[in-house]
Amino acid sequence: MRAFLKTNLPIFNPKRDLSITRFRLLLATLFVVALTAVVIARLINLQVLNYDRYKTLSVENRVGLVPVSPVRGQILDRNGQILADNYPAYELEVVPDKVDSMERTINDLGELITLNEKELEAFVKAVRSRPGFESQILKQSLSPEEASIIAVNQHRFPGIALRANLRRTYPFSDLAAHVVGYVGRISEEDLKNINRSAYKGTRYIGKVGIEANYEDELLGVAGYETVEFNAHGRIIRSLDYQSPIAGWNVNLTLDIDLQRIARDALGDQRGSVVVLQPDSGDVLALVSSPDYDPNLFSKGLSIKSYDALRKSPDKPLMNRAIHGHYAPGSTIKPILGISLLEDRFDFDEQFVCKGEFYLPGRDRPYRCWKRDGHGEINLVEAIAQSCDVYFYKLSLALGIDKMALWFRHFGLGKETKVDLNGEAIGLVPDPEWKRSAYDEAWFPGETVISGIGQGYLLATPLQLAVATAAIANNGKIIRPRLLSYLKNAETGDVLMGPEVEVISRIPANSSMLSIISEGMIDVVHGSMGTARAMGSGLPYRIAGKTGTSQLISMAEDDETDQVNIPDNLVDHALFVAFAPADNPRIVVAIVVENGGSGSRAAAPIARKIFDYYLIDRLLRASTNWKEFGFG
User: Fold this and answer.
1) Which among 533, 538, 553, 519 is positioned nearest to 604, based on CA atoms?
2) How buried is residue 17: exposed, middle or buried, by Cβ count under 10 Å (0-12/13-18/19+)?
3) CA Rg, the chain, in Å?
4) How far is CA 71 from its chain centroid?
5) Does pLDDT of 393 surpass 60?
6) Beta strands at 235-242 and 494-496: parallel, antiparallel or unpaired
7) CA torsion 380→383→387→392, rounded to 10°?
8) How far apart are CA 92 and CA 162, in angstroms?
9) pLDDT value of residue 284
């Protein structure tokens, strides 16, 4: 028993036990202090050192900035008629990151409203290519009934929002489509060229025409609304609001009533009509036919419908006034006449036209439009009667280099600098150009046909209008313009458009220009003028020039009746003119594709335009008839 007690019972040691207890308390205290220090350090990091960052992160969990679209500026004509406006429309938007099951959500929405295949394809493509936190349009232009259904059921669909946006509308539809242009959805290509922050809140951008050329002015500046979201992504309340700044209204020089007169006069024929004020360069009308309805693009045009427009043989999307390339035909004879006079040519000298012309040593005839010839004829008579043989001879005497120089003096072969994007420059050929383009020499026969506006020479209707205005302006080439002024609809501030800009001056004196004008007056009012039919009963005088742009060459012995030529190969008809001849107020340039004769197809269109502008509009509003060139 004693032995057991000795070997198994611990010996009580109070001192040792107290030491152990103290050590354990110290460890516990140190552990608690260490944990407290960690907590304090973390609090200092959160609340002091990184307070701003974590506050922002916390707020962003429930607060966000929603861009507010600015109101796009209107486009108006010179008399205040609205050519482009805005109307309210509802869109259904989805934020993909806030949707649990996209497939189920779309199926459920499809039971409430109609979702067409095109919109679904566009939505899926956008979701795959854009960040998930960006809202994407699922359906555009909801009807009021559809908008009401979505509003009532919106609580069932987290991440779904009904937005009221302004959409573009064009009250005059296709009447001024090629001038005004249209807006369309911002494409991937557009995103490469724009400042994305400027387009927060809007998905549309000007594509062509004035809508594109004055995009920066029309767009405005987006506003922002600070809103609070719930867990489902729905807006609970608005915390702050910064108003957007509306775009500027763009007021044009265009007269939409005159535009209608010109378009109606052209009718269903393919072609173009340009009407200018010669002294200011104001574009009063710019017609390209056929045209299209720009409202189709702002509402959303299907790929199939767009391809039909783009591939149409009539090319309705092409603005023929600034993109169309046409051989100017005899409309350039007044220009050659001026170059002849500046070359010290005697305008009274008589040439004999026997209906055909031969190059020295050649037996191929270059025929005049009048097969039996014009007989003896001088410069003024040659312009009035459009004698080809006369200008064959004089073009050969001038030479192609001098002719090309004078064509460029009148603005051919270069931009007119009108405020529309993508203007074509046409073509003024010369030997250097031909060597570069074809690696071939220039031939005398090419000089001869250039003298009557055929061959390689190409011009746009707007270039022909500017060149004609130069004769009316006593030799001044004035830049055509469409912008009259910008107006801020909110403040009333006005920014005037560009001042009248004289680009260059024709190196010809006024007496020589008067001689050419005399020939152009006789085109309409002379007994042998090619457009004398349109001059009947006019209370004012017109200076004009007819032209024909050949599309095929006929052999010298080919007597094929024009009736047998396919419609698409019939000559283009042209007419350029200004009136009143003694005090020019208006210039026109007309091209009727496959119209045949300028005197029959194009000149009557000009007569309707002149009658409206000088009689229906100006004469009735003025008691001073002589002010407008009436006797």
Assistant:
1) 533
2) exposed
3) 38
4) 20
5) yes
6) unpaired
7) 90
8) 5
9) 98
For residue 516 the two structure tokens come to 């050419």
Average pLDDT, the chain: 86
Q: Between these two residues, 500 and 555, which has the higher pLDDT value?
A: 500
> Coil, strand or helix: which one is 454?
coil
Could you give the 3-state DSSP secondary structure of residue 580?
Answer: coil
- Alpha-carbon span 88 to 517, nearest angstrom: 53
Contact 328, 457 (CB under 8 A): yes
Cis bond before residue 580 (omega within 30° of 0): yes
- Tell me which DSSP letter residue 74 carries: P
- Report, as residue numbers or ranges, the catalytic residues: 330
DSSP, residue by residue, 514-575: HHHHHHHHHHHHSTT-TTGGGGTT-SS--EEEEEEE-SSPPPTT----GGGS-GGGSPEEEE
Q: Using the predicted structure, report yes or no on whether residue 4 has a pLDDT greater than 60.
A: no
User: Residue 271 pairs with which residues in a beta bridge?
Assistant: 289, 592
Q: To the nearest 10°, the Cα dihedral for 354, 355, 359, 360?
A: -20
Enter the DSSP assignment of 73: P
Q: Which residue do the tokens 């232009």 mark? A: 141
Torsion of CA 598, 600, 606, 609, to 10 degrees: -150
Which burial class, exposed, middle or buried, applies to 217 when counting CB atoms under 10 A from its CB (0-12, 13-18, 19+)? Answer: middle
State what percent of residues in the chain have pLDDT above 90. 52
Residue 395 φ then ψ, to 5°: -65, -40
